[in-house]
Amino acid sequence: MHITKGVIAAAGRGTRFLPSTKAVPKELLPIVDKPIIQYLVEEFISAGIKNIVIVTASERSPIRDHFRRSVVLERHLRNTGKPGLAKKIREIADNVDITFIKQNGPYGNGTPCLNAAKLIGHEPFVYAFGDDLVLSKKSFTKQMLDAYKKKPGLYAGAQEVAKHEAHKYGIIKPSKHGQPREMSGIIEKPAAHRAPSNLANIGRFILPPEIFPILARKKLGTGNELWLIDAIDELVRQGCKAFYKKIEQGRWYTTGDPVNYLEAVRAFALASADYKNKVRHIFTTKY
Question: Domains plus CATH for the chain?
Answer without folding.
Answer: 5-159+199-254 (3.90.550.10)
